[in-house]
Structures are given as C-alpha cells and as structure tokens.
C-alpha cells in the first residue's frame, strides 16, 4: 500500500552554509558517474563553480558535469530532532550523524543533504534501482529505454516540432523503472512548473523545478502493466473512444477549397479505402477565425458535412485557442462575448487582457480555461458552432499556448518571475519564447505556474462541450497535454517530418503516451513537414494502420492505383482487427491497461528474417491470445454489421484466451448496459487457430462435432469455417 502514503513529517533545517575552500587541484572524492551537476545552466566556469561551494574537475566522459556537488554538500537539509513516521511502510534512515534520507518502499531514495528547497529553485536527487528507466515527456526520444549517461530533459509545454532533447507540446514528469528482477515501479513528480530532469549513470535522477512543491507519487507495480493501471487510477483513466474514432482518418493542412476536399474524399471512395473520419485544418475558417467558416472557398461546407455523415462518416474540426481582437465590434461574437464575460488571460495587472501575436492579423487574446467563466463561454461557442457545422469531434491545436512572439505586447517586464535565477534545460532557455510572459495572470495563478496546464485545462471543457453538442461520446484531440489529459482527450505526436527516422521514432512516442495514460495516440502518417516520398508514405501507411489513432495528415498526391491498393489492404487488416482494438480501449478505460505493447527482446529468443515486400507489412501475433475480428468495410458504420471471427494463436502449452467488449460504439456513460441487443444478430463465421501441433481429425464446437467440410487444415494451422 505504499502508493497511498501521502505524508512524512520530517523536521529538517537547512544545513549551515559551509564556505569551504577546496583544494584547487580537483578532488576525486566523487566518482565521475556519481556527479550531480552544480551548474546546470550554460556558462559554467571554475570561478563560478567554486563560488557556489562546488568542485570543478574536468573529465572526458561525454556530458558528465565538470562542476559538481562535493560529498559534503554545502546546501541541503539535516535532521533537527526526530523524524516522525506517519505510515509504517515509509521510512527514514540515518546515514551518518544527522544526515537524513527518505526512502519509499526501497524504490525511491533521496538524501536530504542534497535537497535544495527555495522559492524559485527546488532540486532533489533520487537513486533508482536500475538503469532501465522509461518515460518523461514530451520529447522526441531516440530510444524507448533511456540512456542514463548524463542526459537532461526539460519539461515546459512548447510549440516545437519534434527535435531530439527539445521540450515539446506536453509535460509528463513520470517515469517507469524496471528493476533487475523485472519488477517495475513508476514515479510521478506532480509539478507544473518549468523543470528538467537529469539521468546519471549512478543510476540516479536529479529533478530541478522552478516552483511549486516536490509532490512525488510512487506506484509499485509489480508488473509494468500494473504500474500503468495504478498510475491511471490516480490521475484518471483514459476516456472510452467512440468506435468510429478507431477508423482511418484523413486530414491535410490547406486543401484550400471545398472542391479539393471533395475530390480527395471521392478519390478515397473510388479506391474503396476504409475511411471513417475527415478532418478540417484551419483553412476551413474565414481568415483563420475560430467559430467561422470560409463562405467563399468552403461554400456549402455545412451541407457537405451533413452528406458525409449520412454516408456513415464522421467529421472533426480544428479550433485554435486564441481569439482575434481585430474585428469590428459587434461582428465577431466569440470576441465580443468573451470580452463581456472577462474570460481572457490577463497581463500582470490582472485586469487588462494579454494580447499576443497570432492568426489572423496579429492581435489575439487567450482564453483562460482555468476560469469557470471561460468554460461557460467556450461551451456556448462550441454549441453555437454545432448549429452551423455538424461536427462529431474537436481537434484543439496550438494550446501550449502558442504565440508567434516572445511574450505578449509590449514585451515582458524585467522581474524575478519573468527572469528566474535558473531556467531549466528548455529550448532557447527562455520562458516567454513563443508564448506569454510568465507574470501573466490566470484564474488558477500566475502563468509562471500554470503555463504547462493550458492545453490540459482546455481539454476537459472541450470534451464536455462536444458531448453536450453531439449527445454522443466525445472526440477531443489535443496537441498540448499534461498529467491526466487522457481522461478527456487523445493526442498526436505533432508536426513531425516526412523522414524515415520520424516514422521509426513515432513507435517510441506511441509507447510513451501509453505510459502517460493517453492511449489514444498516433503520429501523422507520412509526416507533416516536407514532401513525403512514395516508398516512405506507403510504409508509413502500413505502420500507421496499427497506430491506436490512425490519421494521414499528408495525403500524397501520388495516389496511383498501386498505392491505393496497398493502403486499402493494410487498412482492411486494421478494420478487421477493430473489435480487438476496441476491447483494448475498453480495458484501458476500465482497468487502465495500455493499448500497445512492447515485446521484450528476450521473448524473441532469436532474430528472424522475414519477407517484407513493399506490398506487405509483417504482422505477428503473440501466442496465447485470442483476437476477435470482424469483416472490414469502407466505414466502421458498415463493418459493425459484419460477421465476427476469431484468430486463436496458441502458446507453447496449446492454450489461448481473450475477450471481446461490444456495445453501440458511441453512447455516453455506462458501458455495461443491460439490454444491449446489437450483437445478437452478429455471427462468428470464421475461427482460425494458429499453432496446432497435430493434424486434427475432427473439430467440436460447443460439444457438437463440426462437419469435415466445414474446416480446413494447413500445415501452419487449422482454419475452421463454421457455418451457422
Ligand atoms: C481579467 O480581467 C478581467 C477584466 O478585464 C476580469 O474580469 C477577470 O476576472 C480577470 N481575470 C483574471 C484571471 O485576472
Ligand atoms: C514539394 O513538392 C512541391 C511540388 O512538387 C515543390 O514545389 C516543393 O518545392 C517541394 N518542397 C520541398 C520542401 O521539397
Ligand atoms: C525532423 C524530425 O522529424 N525529427 C526531428 C523532427 O524535427 C527536426 C527537424 O528536422 C529534426 O532535427 C529532428 O531530428
């Protein structure tokens, strides 16, 4: 029960500042791998280092700090009186004399002699029991398991296309550690300030944050899957996505006109490509104004959306957070009403709205979603939009929040909030870059503290507004996320590039967002920036067919017949497995499981070389599992009426198990409802068993022998086509 423990009362006092003079020859007391950086900001020098009471000593180990804390840190805390245990599972240990360290269930150990706890700088170092550390986000990580060789990751939400080591759109100060006995645990530092974490080979983690408190949660597993179940129990289980939102989705920045959009949709239908959802990026709007549509280039959009919906498709619209203040008074209701209701993020004076540079003409205000009045205003706007454009879901972009300048007009004042003594390892080492000034005011507090919560605070209100507008299960896709965002929304990995490397890294990103409790996750298939190539885009279509959220945002113009054929084939595999994917989402929603799983290399025992011609993606099934499937169709509206089948992949013992969750796919609220009869008319018409060791002479189903002509056997399995 360790993870329920909340408090430990420790009477500690700051260690008296010791102004020691160090031997100018550098001390070897601290082994290089145990060094804790004492000058994490750029520009370290021996002089500055020693002025801090730290040791300066060069090393040729890459990225290892040259300025580091001595064994006997001049900072930190020591015990004053007795530590009081509030729960028996937490303990404090005395190291030497009055040195104190905190330990939670032997998974999280921190020496308080290293703790720094000041107004704008909090630092703590914890040991980890192994170097198998996963998580922390949002970044482009080059491997799923982290390198512990002095890597530092900053966390502060930012409009930043994925680049290694850069802080990206969301913030997730959560990691999982797999110990040498393969038990796993997870740790969350619930803190929304700009922060960074350094991973050292000791192995240890050093957390630095510039505000808030050190609020750690430890989740004890013991399996990795248990850790995520416990983590999402604490932060909120992922929402249950609508069945249609597991279908393939199409989007593109800049169709430019409804004619191009229609041609694209027609082409998808002509090639019979399974496809459920069409998205509109900001070019559907009139001059990129939220809650409008372009009545010239997109004339007839409302009717067209209705038509697609009649054909069983669904429609998602993008909305940006910023609202233009440049329109004539009385002509742009979203601004007029918001202004009247006082819903914007304010300047440091707390009364005048912060005006940033954004679409369309450079003067925009930013809704403060932490303010309940803003939630009312936003809900009202979303409801009114629904009367014009009959959307099924909302895609919320730019909500880091992004601003095209450094801070709002006329720039940020010089003060401690805007210029803290330490800026974590984030891009540009500037808190206001591409966003608002830290001293801006939101309802929940200073932007300094709430910046990384912006996208998170917009997600739940958008979810509830969409539910209210559609009367159905909501679809919200958010670019910026924080701890707990998965409860109300999904995410895509951002504006990445059309390169092979990015396709590879998308797999890591998708696994990581499953750790963060946001299993409705995908990357833009074929990339977003740059032109894609035929082969890359095709391979990405094949891979993306297995993303939990499968959307192409860069539909290639080379939609030649072969491309369409291969895309159709791979998407038909996705559609046939949707009952399985849907069941995984149900498990995630109810029990917090992940949707995607990493197969440990040890399971594979040996490397295998398999054929992968351009027309095929190798697909492997784990022995021991049963996958429900359904014959594919061009939309899920149609495929949901098709017969089911089962793929039974036996394990070494000749056994397998599985489950199927089925409901109407889009109603809100209780998922296990008595009286749902929608599955009654559906039959199982194909059961495929893989991995049989012996040739069967007869097959029995529910105790009744199946006629010999109703099943077939291939040397690599048995296929029983059972007629009802
Ligand atoms: C922002 O200013 C408006 C007045 O312009 C006020 O109504 C609102 O409460 C303020 N909000 C915050 C969070 O300061
Ligand atoms: C992408 O392709 C278009 C059309 O072929 C071309 O005009 C453009 O320059 C290309 N862009 C890049 C970045 O290669
Ligand atoms: C590019 C990419 O997709 N991966 C990332 C994405 O952004 C930058 C820009 O190219 C790359 O440097 C980086 O490797």
From TrEMBL:
<dbReference type="GO" id="GO:0030246">
    <property type="term" value="F:carbohydrate binding"/>
</dbReference>
<keyword id="KW-0732">Signal</keyword>
<dbReference type="InterPro" id="IPR017853">
    <property type="entry name" value="GH"/>
</dbReference>
<dbReference type="InterPro" id="IPR030459">
    <property type="entry name" value="Glyco_hydro_31_CS"/>
</dbReference>
<dbReference type="Pfam" id="PF00088">
    <property type="entry name" value="Trefoil"/>
</dbReference>
<dbReference type="InterPro" id="IPR011013">
    <property type="entry name" value="Gal_mutarotase_sf_dom"/>
</dbReference>
<feature type="domain" description="P-type">
    <location>
        <begin position="24"/>
        <end position="71"/>
    </location>
</feature>
<dbReference type="GO" id="GO:0016020">
    <property type="term" value="C:membrane"/>
</dbReference>
<dbReference type="InterPro" id="IPR030458">
    <property type="entry name" value="Glyco_hydro_31_AS"/>
</dbReference>
<dbReference type="Pfam" id="PF01055">
    <property type="entry name" value="Glyco_hydro_31_2nd"/>
</dbReference>
<dbReference type="GO" id="GO:0005975">
    <property type="term" value="P:carbohydrate metabolic process"/>
</dbReference>
<dbReference type="InterPro" id="IPR044913">
    <property type="entry name" value="P_trefoil_dom_sf"/>
</dbReference>
<keyword id="KW-0326">Glycosidase</keyword>
<dbReference type="InterPro" id="IPR000322">
    <property type="entry name" value="Glyco_hydro_31_TIM"/>
</dbReference>
<keyword id="KW-0325">Glycoprotein</keyword>
<dbReference type="GO" id="GO:0004558">
    <property type="term" value="F:alpha-1,4-glucosidase activity"/>
</dbReference>
<comment type="similarity">
    <text>Belongs to the glycosyl hydrolase 31 family.</text>
</comment>
<keyword id="KW-0472">Membrane</keyword>
<keyword id="KW-0378">Hydrolase</keyword>
<keyword id="KW-1015">Disulfide bond</keyword>
<dbReference type="InterPro" id="IPR013780">
    <property type="entry name" value="Glyco_hydro_b"/>
</dbReference>
<dbReference type="InterPro" id="IPR000519">
    <property type="entry name" value="P_trefoil_dom"/>
</dbReference>
<protein>
    <recommendedName>
        <fullName>P-type domain-containing protein</fullName>
    </recommendedName>
</protein>
